[in-house]
Design brief:
mainly alpha, Tetracycline Repressor, domain 2, elongated
Amino acid sequence: MDAPRTYTMRARADAKAATHLRVLRAVLELSEEKMTIEITLDEVASRAGTSVQTVLRHFGSRDNLLDEAVRLASADVEEERRAPVGDVAGALAVIVAHYERRGDYVLRLLGQEHDPRIAAVVGPGKLLHRRWVEDVFRPQLDAAGGDRDTLIDLLVVATDVYAWKLLRRDRGLDAATTQARMHALVTAILVGK
């Protein structure tokens, strides 16, 4: 007699989890289209195929919803940026692909840095990028000796979203040329150490 009840409870829990994730993904999609402050619960609910009341039942408030969406996006970004350690070309292929996917969105976030909620996103994002540089280029940094912090700073700049923007958006270069130019920068930094 317990089996049907257990199945029903599990099905409900699965449906609740799916709705929860669908709402979070709706927030992330909307945040790629407009400023975070412009996103309304009505839009989120509509995009997720649910009601505002359901959104509030899951998250309690718009602030809690945005906070949880930030956590999910951060986890997605970290996974997206995984790159082969010590492989300059491979690492740059990963980071340029990441910027092709999220670069314009990240630039929009950086433009909203004055908002404490956005600052809470971009601050850790900047630290994540620095750690990425330290991890991905660790063999080259270990071999270079000298002033490690200076090399890391230069590599952070050469692989930053703003470097991508200058080449890709401002200069209008294609992704492959942008990647090649970033590769030339990184190589010059590592060789010139």
